[in-house]
Amino acid sequence: MEVLRCRMSQGGRVFGCPLPVVIGLPVDEARRRIRQCRPDVYIEVLSENQMRTMAYCSNRVRLIVNRFNKVVKNAHIG
User: Fold this and answer.
1) SS3 50
2) Contact 5, 32 (CB under 8 A)
3) Which range marks the domain in which residue 33 is found?
4) How far apart are CA 10 and CA 22, in angstroms?
5) Among candidates 63, 14, 21, 65, which has minimal Cα distance to 40?
6) Cβ neighbourhood burial of 77 (10 Å; 0-12, 13-18, 19+)
7) Is 63 inside a domain boundary?
8) For the whole model, what pTM was predicted?
9) Does residue 1 have a pLDDT over 60?
């Protein structure tokens, strides 16, 4: 098992480890990998052309998937 390192801000607060690269993975596998690293985030699955809000949410990760349920864009917080 690989050791996950956490990023820290200047104030010493832990923000968790960086999100893994999940492009090309099935959505279930991508969710599992993100949950291993960041169990505190809410994962939202959206299709490529689906409309979405521009509101920033610090505990949300969006997975953009194609019609075959494969992740097509790298996951990011917001």
Assistant:
1) coil
2) no
3) 19-77
4) 28
5) 14
6) middle
7) yes
8) 0.73
9) no
**pLDDT per position as a tens digit, 14-67:** 455 778 889 999 999 999 999 998 888 999 999 999 988 888 888 899 999 999
Position 3 in a domain: no
Amino acid at site 23: I
**CB-based contacts of 18: which residues, under 8 Å, 6+ apart?**
7, 37
Local structure of 20: helix, strand or coil = coil
How many structural domains are present in the chain? 1
Q: Is residue 60 part of a domain?
A: yes
Q: Which residue has the tokens 């923000």?
A: 15
Longest dimension (CA), the chain: 42
Residues facing 43 on adjacent strands: 61
Residues in the chain: 78
